[in-house]
Amino acid sequence: MASQSQAQAQAQMHAQNLMKLDNKTSKRSNMLLEQNVSRPRRDRVGLGAFAFMFAEIIRYSQNRVLGIQDLEAKLSEIGQRVGVRMFELAMWREKTVHRETRVLQTLVFINTVVWRALFDKQADSLERSTESDDEYMITDNEPAILKYISVPKEMSSFSPGAFISGVVEAIARCCQCPARVTSHVVPADGLPLRTVILLKFDKEVMDREKRLETGK
Q1: How far apart are CA 82 and CA 76, in angstroms?
Q2: Fewest CB atoms within 10 Å of the CB: 56, 99, 110, 115?
Q3: HSE-up (13 A, CA, CB side) for residue 98
Q4: Residue 183 forms beta bridges with which residues?
C-alpha cells in the first residue's frame, strides 16, 4: 500500500514538473513572438549552436545526394530559402519603400546590410572582375558558419559556403538582378577559411545596366 502511495506521489510530482516546464516554454515562445521584428535582436544565437545546426544541415543534405556538386546545389537551395526571408526582413528593417534594382547598389546592399544582419559584420571586400564585366566578388575572410566545419580530404573540392552563395543568389534575384552565384574557398596567409562569393550576372541584367547608363 505504501509503495502504491509513493508511486502516485512520484507521478503527481512528475506531472507538476511537466506543467512547470510547459509554462516556461510557453512564456519563452510568447516572448519571441512579441519581439519587434523591425529591430535587430539583442539576444543572438551562439556561434557554437549555429555551427552545430549548420553541420546537421550538411549531414542531412549529404545523405540525400550522390556527389559533391549535388551537395553544394542542395545547400544553395536551402540558402535561397533563407535569402528570400532575409531580404524581406532587411527591407522591413531598413524602412525603405523601394528595392535596389541596379547591380552596384544591389551588391552594396548585400555587402553591408545583409552581411551585418547575418554575420554581425560587413563583408571584407567587394570587387569587380578584371576579366569579365559581368562578374563580381564578395569576400569574407573568416566566414562564421565555417569556423567549426571540417572538410575531409576526399571532399577537398567541397565548399560549405554554397549555403551563403544561395542566400546571395536569392537576394540578387529579389532585386531584379538574377545571377549565377558560386562559392569558392581561397585560402590566404593566416586565413584558411577565406571564402569568395562569385556572382555572374545574367546577360539581360548587364544589357539593362548599359541602357540605364547611356540614358536609353
Answers
A1: 10
A2: 56
A3: 5
A4: 197
Q: Which three cell numbers stand for residue 23?
A: 509554462
Render pLDDT for 44-76 as a digit per residue (tens, 0 to 9).
667 778 888 888 999 999 988 989 999 999 999
pLDDT at 71: 94
pTM: 0.79
Q: What is the DSSP letter of 124?
A: S
Q: In angstroms, rounded to a whole number, what is the distance separating the alpha carbons of residues 180 and 197? A: 10
Helix or strand holding residue 125 (H, E): strand 125-128
Are 166 and 79 in contact, with CB atoms under 8 Å apart? yes
Question: Which amino acid, 196?
Answer: V
In order of 2, 37, 71, 167, the CA distances from 127 in angstroms are 78, 32, 27, 19
Give the H or E element holding residue 115: helix 115-119
